[in-house]
Amino acid sequence: MDFKTWMAEVQARTERALELSLPAATLAPRRLHEAMRYAVLGGGKRVRPLLCHAAGAVFATPADRLDAPACAVELIHAYSLVHDDLPCMDDDVLRRGKPTCHVEFGEATALLVGDALQAQAFEVLARPGPAADPARQVAMLAMLAQAAGSLGMAGGQAVDLDSVGKSLDLPDLEFMHLRKTGALIRASVLLGAHAGGADAPALERLAHFANRVGLLFQVVDDILDATADTTTLGKTAGKDAAHDKPTYVSILGLVRARELAGELREEALATLEPFGAAGGRLTELTRYIAERSF
Amino acid sequence: MDFKTWMAEVQARTERALELSLPAATLAPRRLHEAMRYAVLGGGKRVRPLLCHAAGAVFATPADRLDAPACAVELIHAYSLVHDDLPCMDDDVLRRGKPTCHVEFGEATALLVGDALQAQAFEVLARPGPAADPARQVAMLAMLAQAAGSLGMAGGQAVDLDSVGKSLDLPDLEFMHLRKTGALIRASVLLGAHAGGADAPALERLAHFANRVGLLFQVVDDILDATADTTTLGKTAGKDAAHDKPTYVSILGLVRARELAGELREEALATLEPFGAAGGRLTELTRYIAERSF
User: Fold this and answer.
1) ipTM reported for the complex, 2 dp
2) CB of A165 within 8 Å of any CB in chain B?
3) Whose CA is closest to B202, among B111, B128, B110, B276?
4) How far is A40 from A48, CA to CA, in rounded Å?
5) Per-residue pLDDT at B164
6) In chain A, what are the domain boundaries?
7) Is B293 exposed, middle or buried (0-12, 13-18, 19+ CB in 10 A)?
8) Residues of B in contact with A109 (CB under 8 A)
């Protein structure tokens, strides 16, 4: 199967799995469930589920075992976007080409949507299925919690918040991004590998890979924010500069940021070499992330 | 050991366990960790940890096995208070006798504090210890997620939000409270029982008990909100009436609400009888919840 077909297939099955994992909009409280579905379904590139499935493919993991971890990381990501867009945070009105959740449903509901989606992520991952061994499933739940918490994504957002108007240096920026986007990207890769029964050396290698890919993803994001337009992105472009936020582009300039993206791509690809052909999907996905334009 | 001594001991060990479970305030991001500790430590009656330990006592569970579930439910509770107090929700300035988290640290940080505390709850419960059998630990994590999510606490808050200014009837009010406060109280009892290795019939009986105690807790809360003063409560009194929120007092009147509290107390106590002396702490705690004045 070529990469584009594989990607479309994973995106479609993730959409179905998310659809099934969320309570029906007819179930009380209806407005909350409607808003949760609005925030999650029918949008997004599903980069984290793709990473989860691609990492699972290294170990020839059946796709249905990867649906739960793929949904779990996407639900955490979706909740973070809803909260990130709130007026007290980025105060944004456009996301995935639609009005943001609080614009559509009000701030209080959007707050609860994020809260409920986070719980839903753990609920999905705690269902039977994602690992043959329950001890490994507990480890996967611990990993998701760490990735989402104050030493992971939420912590990265706190650093981001404190960085507005400050001139961070490159190590500080990397510290922030390894948490803000990196922690959940790392969890996406490692949960897929766990579901496939990966051993400790493989997990360690993939953690190193995921750290490079996470930074690559962020550098490309910063480049796109500085160069693409709002319609292409489906979210407000030029937001970082407008909010006076330090980015790879503001610190390094566009030329050097593009060089850095290339270096990170090569480092990530090099860590995959020992997996040989089994690392094929991760290799393709890394190239896709490096070259994406939206 | 008499009840008051037992209670003080559980509160003290819960404080220590929470203190240990939260990242140090010296660890980056410092402001976030400081704010998380502010929101969790040194306050609160710790009703949910008390219920967890009292339910564990039915099965003679060692107290150190109950610390993780007790912390987990208290962390979920603490996060819900931080988000509930935000300007877009109840917009409250006083909690546990101190300025609310967003008054002290700003709205954006308070939002992240709640988000990070929820993740921390799952992280604590996913550590080794709370159950001898990892399959049971997965079930406990699933239970916590359901209690926190859109069919539990977050769902109850959504119903609460929609109820402002409406005249709910008693079944609607019960529907809301079984979720808003009831779901986490039920989880507190059942997680304690799970940690003690309870079998299915005992869990079912305790679920019934917990539903009664959850409603009892809420009825007493409504009575206190209508009759006590702000200094005694450590939070803003008279808030429900001021926000035009339906309560047991507004629907039933004070006299009938007090009668209902008595009935719920007796129903709860009756479900404990088959446990005999082993149910002693739960019996004492039920009486305490019925008679509390703060």
Assistant:
1) 0.95
2) no
3) B276
4) 13
5) 79
6) 3-287
7) exposed
8) 158, 161
Among A113, A138, A168, the strongest candidate for a mutation testing the B interface, having the largest count of B CBs within 10 A, is A138
Which of B32, B111, B120 faces A86 most closely, judged by CB atoms?
B111
Report the predicted TM-score, pTM, of the whole model to 2 decimal places: 0.96
The CATH class, in words, for B3-288 is mainly alpha
Average pLDDT over residues B90-113: 95
Reply yes or no on whether the pLDDT at B241 is more than 90.
Answer: no
Has residue B201 got a pLDDT over 90? yes
CA dist A188 and A184 (Å) reads 6
Residue showing tokens 């299925």 = A129
Q: What is the distance between the alpha carbons of residues A124 and B275, in angstroms, rounded to a whole number?
A: 34
Query: Residue B123 corresponds to which tokens in the numbers above?
Result: 């992280």
DSSP assignment string, B159-178: HHHHHTTS---HHHHHHHHH
* Beta carbons of B115 and A83 less than 8 angstroms apart: yes
Question: Look-up: residue for tokens 């766990």?
Answer: A194
Which single residue is written with the structure tokens 């379904």? A41
E strand or H helix at B76: helix B63-84
pLDDT in tens, A239-271: 777 777 888 999 999 999 999 999 999 999 999
What Å distances lie between residue A180 and A101, A215, B249, CA to CA?
21, 10, 45
CATH code reported for the domain at A3-287? 1.10.600.10
